[in-house]
Amino acid sequence: MLAECTVVVPTIGRPSLDVLLDALATAPGPRPAELVLVDDRPTGEPLRPERPGLPPVRVVRTGGGGPARARNLGWRSARTTWIAFLDDDVVPDADWYERLERDLADLPADVAGSQGRVRVPLPEDRAATDWERGTAGLATSSWITADLAYRRAALAAVGGFDERFPRAFREDSDLALRIMDTGARLVRGERWITHPVRPTDRWVSVRVQAGNADDVLMRRLHGPDWRRRADAALGRRPRHTAVTAAALAAVGLAVARRPRAAALAAAGWLAGTAEFAWARIAPGPRTRDEITTMLVTSAAIPPLATWHWLRGVVRHVGVRPWKGLPDLVLFDRDGTLVRDYPYNGDPALVTPVPGAREAVDALRARGVKVGVVSNQSGVARGLITRAQVDACMARLEELLGPFDTLQVCPHGPDDGCTCRKPAPGMVKAACAELGVDPARCVVIGDIGADVEAAEAAGAVGIMVPTPVTRAEEVAASTWALDDLAEAVDVVLGGRW
Questions:
Q1: Which domains does the chain have, with CATH numbers?
Q2: DSSP letters of 39-88?
Q3: What pLDDT, on the 0 to 100 scale, is given for residue 1?
Q4: Which of 55, 103, 137, 213 has the fewest CB neighbours in a 10 Å radius?
Q5: H or E segment and range at residue 444
Q6: CB under 8 Å to 11, separation ≥6 — which residues?
């Protein structure tokens, strides 16, 4: 079973990564097909994960983009049936490989994912701090990707993680809800990891209030009962709003020269803040540093939580369900990727249009497969040979890098074939070759036949018109964009 599993670990290069890798290297049992480390640092020295005992290791880089994008790149670059996600600050038990194999073995087809079990060790010689108690909540959280294995097909079907969640917060719950919305089930396995409490500074509780904006996104995407479905408690946000409102009222009433009313509002703010601070101080170690931190941050958190919530309300108006990146983008060749020389059989004339290499590389960098679908009726007309077509395709790959599939139709318009665009044959063949659902495929071309072929295959067509594109074709296209760069931006933004 593990031969059909890839372990994906997004990382920002924390020292804890070495602890994880050591645990994976020394654990007994079978090994997965591959370990993919996704380096999510904008810059930095290359990771050095090599050590005896690890499965084959591959490192890919996002250039920075957050955990959702990093995990997406990890699973998109894998080709196995299962993708097992681990965070870079966890420590798997010694029998993790063996238990993972048992957890995944013989699961019914309607089970899309298996969550591992999490322990969070807390100090034994003192009471836990506020940060430590918050981290301990991971032990009972549902569908967190600190250790969660998904079928690759299930990830592809929903577009993977929603990259509009910029933090390691709610992106895993959102994914779980979307997968379960397809009718699939998620189950808990019997493997265990340890999630130590990371050292942090005293302001961490202030920074995490940004997650209130993500809660708004969850509500917009999944409806008012999303918390019940995701097993996510409401917490204190309504009380934070009330405390913030009392503070604003106190200031406003003071400005309006209503001192008694202002004093009452201020008393309400003070009482709410004091209650919040004590609720955090009472269970803790009550050291001077902890008490000071709780007092200061308890005053700051309510207005910040309210601000981030309001920011989310404004930002996520009219938000649409996440479609994710396509699994495959197919390009027309002549007029789209290279300058159009009719019936060209000379590789020396293969000249990329401006931005072609950058556009194709941007897709590759995000784990999207790329291919070419090209009508070459010059072969049927006797103007060029198939060998010349293949030579021009080889030159195309020299200039733009390797493609995952190259589809050519050598027939003429009167041959009645099913491959010549606007017929869908080449699009369907490319999807079949790469195991891609046509609904997860985008075709980019310069004329109406490209878009029609995409739609006939069940894919999405995007037109990048040239001066020879007919006006009626542009008018009929849902997507008619200025250049390849804009087309790829639409695709990578999940707006296709």
A1: 2-200 (3.90.550.10), 202-320 (no CATH), 328-492 (3.40.50.1000)
A2: E--SS-SPP----TTPPPEEEEE-SS--HHHHHHHHHHT--SSEEEEE-T
A3: 77
A4: 137
A5: strand 441-445
A6: 17, 37, 38, 39, 40, 47, 70, 88
Residues 6+ apart with CB under 8 A from 72: 160, 161, 163, 324, 325, 366, 367
Taking CA atoms, 336 is separated from 333, 353, 436, 443, 462, in Å, by 5, 7, 23, 11, 11
Q: Which residue has the tokens 């994710």?
A: 324
Residue 208's φ and ψ, nearest 5 degrees, are -70, -5
Per-residue buried b or exposed e for 381-406, using 16+ beta carbons within 10 Å of the residue's own CB: eeebeeebbebbbebbeeebeebbbb
Rg of the chain over CA atoms, in angstroms? Answer: 27
| 141 CB neighbour count, 10 Å cutoff | 15
Three-state SS for 493?
A: coil
Distance CA 465, CA 467 (A): 7
**244, burial (CB in 10 Å: exposed 0-12, middle 13-18, buried 19+):** buried
Residue 494 binned pLDDT confidence (cut-offs 50, 70, 90): confident
pTM above 0.85, yes or no: yes
pLDDT digits (tens, 9 = 90+) for 19-51: 999 999 999 999 999 999 999 999 888 898 989
Which tokens belong to 166? 């910029």
Average pLDDT over residues 197-226: 96
Residues 6+ apart with CB under 8 A from 214: 165, 167, 169, 170, 171, 312
Cα distances from 195 to residues 74, 123, 146, 451, 452, in angstroms, run 21, 13, 8, 49, 51
**Residue written as tokens 């920074």?**
207
Length of the chain: 496
pLDDT tens, residue by residue, 296-339: 999 999 999 999 999 999 999 999 999 999 999 999 999 999 99
In one-letter notation, the amino acid at residue 296 is V
Would you name the residues annotated as active-site residues? 332, 334
The answer to whether 305 and 212 are in contact (CB under 8 A) is: yes
Q: For residues 269 and 248, is the Cβ–Cβ distance under 8 A? A: no
Instruction: Give me 415's structure tokens.
Output: 């041959």
* Per-residue tokens: 257: 């020269």
Number of other residues whose CB lies within 10 A of the CB of residue 94: 14
370 φ/ψ angles, rounded to the nearest 5 degrees: -130, 150
Q: Are 447 and 333 in contact (CB under 8 A)?
A: no
Residue recorded with tokens 């309210």: 306
Count CB atoms within 10 A of the CB of residue 166: 15
Residue 91 pLDDT: 98
353-403 pLDDT, tens digit per residue, is: 999 999 999 999 999 999 999 999 999 999 999 999 999 999 999 999 999
